[in-house]
TrEMBL record:
UniProt keyword Transmembrane present: yes
Protein name stated in the entry: Uncharacterized protein
Tree of life domain: Eukaryota
InterPro entries membership: Heparan_SO4_2-O-STrfase (IPR007734), P-loop_NTPase (IPR027417), Sulfotransferase (IPR005331)
Species annotation: Scylla paramamosain (Mud crab)
Length: 241
């Protein structure tokens, strides 16, 4: 058992815990406060109360979780807090598909709309790994979006080792799925050194990165435009070791 690769991950856990505490504080705050700030004229407006009132549903929270950033823990917290804080948490099915077609996005928006209407609890929250979906485009008000992010290098390392360590028993696999071939390398550093396709980001390809969870399902949100992202990551991993 090599402990070297585990150490950066343990440091990541500390950072994650801090992020989680911040997220929960923010949730508790938004749950109990009304929007008070009036919109400021001119300048760049961070917060526009009228816009929120017109376009957002303040009693619906949507955690469209970025993978490998501690989202499992945050979902657990949402479930623990629901009774105490007077809201209901609902887990959306289908955790595999993050990129949706126009029709699939419409179905997602409708599903959330229906479940909000059926809910006996007026305040509800949802979670699902899915790219940012614009509810307004489908004639619905926007929910309050919530997410959790993480240092991109830590995230990439986490995904690399997770793919090796966790067979995900019981997880739904899409039809036609075959288990990947055994990995060539045991450490991310090694993988980067050999520029293995498994840890290489190529121009014109798309990968399940963080940006589309905030940007959307469009091509320009999902594709890598510059391979330099790889050089940036490789440089930082090397410096750490
Ligand atoms: C959502 O879509 C509406 C209408 O298509 C557009 O006006 C709005 O800017 C979009 N919002 C975001 C956050 O993309």
């Amino acid at each position: 058992m090599a402990w070297g690769p585990l150490l950066p991950r343990l440091r990541g856990v500390g950072a994650l815990a801090l992020l989680l505490v911040l997220a929960v504080l923010l949730m508790a705050y938004t749950a109990h406060q009304q929007v008070r700030q009036p919109s400021r004229r001119g300048g760049d407006q961070v917060f526009d109360a009228r816009h929120v009132a017109e376009h957002q549903t303040r009693h619906v929270l949507f955690f469209n979780r970025v993978p490998k950033c501690g989202s499992e823990m945050l979902v657990l917290l949402l479930q623990w807090l629901q009774a105490r804080n007077g809201f209901r948490h609902m887990r959306l099915k289908n955790t595999v598909k993050r990129y949706l077609t126009f029709d699939q996005q419409a179905a997602l928006v409708e599903e959330i709309g229906e479940r909000v209407q059926e809910s006996t609890e007026p305040r509800v929250s949802f979670d699902r790994h899915v790219y940012f979906t614009n509810f307004t485009s489908y004639g619905f008000k926007m929910p309050i979006y919530l997410n959790l992010v993480r240092d991109p290098v830590e995230k990439m390392a986490s995904r690399f080792y997770y793919a090796r360590a966790t067979p995900r028993p019981g997880a739904a696999t899409p039809p036609g799925y075959t288990s990947p071939a055994p990995p060539h390398y045991t450490s991310l550093e090694e993988c980067l050194r050999y520029q293995d396709p498994e840890c290489t980001f190529l121009t014109g390809h798309h990968y399940d990165l963080t940006i589309p969870y905030f940007c959307g399902h469009e091509d320009f949100c999902r594709y890598i435009f510059y391979t330099c992202i790889l050089q940036g990551i490789a440089g930082r991993v090397r410096r750490k070791t």
